[in-house]
Write a structure and sequence with these properties.
mainly alpha; 255 residues; single chain
Length: 255
């Protein structure tokens, strides 16, 4: 129950943080290509490694592979040198792909159906009221942070005891497949790699953990938990790299 409420809140708050320009950017052909390729690569990796895992771990692998991209990607991209609008467009595109999987009755479709609606309601509100007060934006960001922390706690409590080497390796393979394919397509289409890596190269581990736990096996959250740890490390690395670049550039001194 708590995970379901947090998941719905996470989607709604993420929708309110999505800039309207992100929706317009979906019309560009390279955006769908960037969305589909990493999604397909991650799904392909999941199909390859799932047979070698136990039934519980397979649930976690499927949950990660079918989850949308990081809902917090636009905020993370802004802190890592990526483009807010471009990352938002990629995130929305990944959500559209997740909605398609949901419509086809994929695993976790019952859970994702209502929360996907929450995202698009939030995005529609932002598009209808573009000049939202800063206080409201700050409130929704804090609510999104709270939802993430809640789902992270659920993942740790449920999946922590079940994390083993197999779960870590599975998470590493899934993330590597998504990141590598996103980087290749980004370079081929001229999209900045940071936006691609965060916007579509990685799946949202909080959503995957909630779906895995909702499938009836708390231990299935082990793979999403391991995956989430790797994603946090990636985001921290990209943010630290951007801070170093800004520091090395230094202030501009006019003669």
């Amino acid at each position: 129950m708590i995970a379901s409420i947090a998941l719905a809140g996470l989607f709604f708050c993420a929708g309110t943080q999505t800039p309207s320009l992100a929706l317009l950017a979906l019309r560009r052909p390279r955006i769908p290509a960037l969305v589909v390729t990493p999604y397909a690569a991650t799904l392909g990796a999941a199909l390859l490694i799932a047979p070698g895992l136990g039934a519980t771990a397979q649930i976690g692998v499927r949950a990660v592979a079918l989850a949308p991209a990081l809902l917090a990607a636009p905020i993370l991209a802004a802190a890592s040198g990526g483009r807010l609008d471009r990352t938002g467009a990629l995130t929305v595109g990944a959500l559209a792909a997740a909605a398609l999987v949901n419509a086809l009755g994929g695993p976790g479709s019952a859970q994702l159906g209502s929360v996907l609606v929450a995202f698009f309601i939030g995005a529609a509100m932002t598009a209808a009221i573009p000049m939202v007060p800063d206080a409201v934006r700050t409130l929704t960001r804090r609510a999104q942070d709270l939802a993430y922390l809640t789902l992270a706690a659920v993942a740790i409590v449920a999946g922590g005891p079940a994390v083993d080497l197999a779960a870590v390796l599975a998470a590493l393979i899934l993330l590597a497949a998504g990141l590598a394919s996103a980087a290749i397509v980004a370079l081929a289409t001229g999209v900045d790699p940071v936006s691609a890596l965060l916007g579509v190269g990685s799946r949202d581990p909080a959503i995957a953990a909630a779906v895995a736990v909702g499938a009836g096996s708390p231990a299935a959250a082990a793979v999403p938990l391991a995956y989430g740890t790797l994603v946090v490390a990636l985001a921290a690395f990209l943010a630290a790299r951007q801070r170093l670049r800004a520091r090395d550039a230094g202030p501009t001194i006019l003669a």
